[in-house]
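Entry:
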Amino acid sequence: MIRSIPNPPMDRDDVARFRCNLEKHLRGDFNAEERHRNEVRKARTEANANRIIANCGGKNPILGY
């Protein structure tokens, strides 16, 4: 049987922080440091994905092709 994963407990501060981050993301209102941090994170995830695909003979193991 697959167990459901409940939502993590969140208090009002967590909800407010989430909404603030979501609003910032939707508006694209990042300062230079945050923009740089996001670019570095994106480059790292793309490099990891390309390494995994290269190790699997050029196929994406998640999508199956």
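DSSP finds two helices and no strands in the chain.
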